[in-house]
Amino acid sequence: MSETRNFVLRDSKGNEHGVFTGKQPRQAALKVANRGKGTKSKPEKIMLRERGTKKVHVFLGWKEMVAAPKNKPDWMPDKINKPFVKKQKPGIIKLDKV
């Protein structure tokens, strides 16, 4: 199995804010999208730099309110937020310096 990797959230100015973990960049991007304010009609740009590398993964992310699954636990509400992400072109940007 692959190891968990750390991804740092970057804004458009290059400032880095939070660390999100996942085995794949998409998994970390879904975590960011679930916390964000993007909608399907107006998704937000998610830029994640993989720690220890010069790679920045670029996604568009949003969340939608959907019905909870039928086998949900008692404590779960009837409507839940579901995150969505889509890899943008270029999918990976190489930085000159970290």
How would you characterize the overall build of this protein?
The protein has about 100 residues and is mainly beta. It has 1 helix and 5 strands, in the order E-E-H-E-E-E. The chain has one helix spanning about 25-35, and strands at about 5-10, 15-20, 45-50, 55-65, 80-95. Strands 2-1-3-4-5 form a 5-stranded antiparallel sheet, covered by helices on one side. The longest helix is centred in the first third of the chain and has 11 residues, at about 25-35. The chain is globular, with a radius of gyration of 15 Å. The model has no long low-confidence stretch (mean pLDDT about 90).
What's the helix and strand layout?
Layout: E1 5-10, E2 16-22, H1 25-35, E3 44-50, E4 55-67, E5 79-94
Antiparallel strand pairs: 1-2, 1-3, 3-4, 4-5
| Spans of at least 5 consecutive residues with low confidence | none
Radius of gyration: 15 Å
Largest sheet, spatial ordering of strands: 2-1-3-4-5
Tell me the structural class. Answer: mainly beta
Provide the succession of SSEs: EEHEEE
How would you describe the shape? globular
Largest sheet: 5 strands, antiparallel
Helices, by number, come to: 1
Global mean pLDDT = 91
* Ends distance: 28 Å
Content of β-strand: over 45%
Query: Considering DSSP H and I runs of 4 or more, what fraction of the residues is helical?
Result: 10-25%
Number of strands: 5
Features:
single chain; 98 residues; mainly beta; 5-stranded antiparallel β-sheet; 1 helix; 50% strand
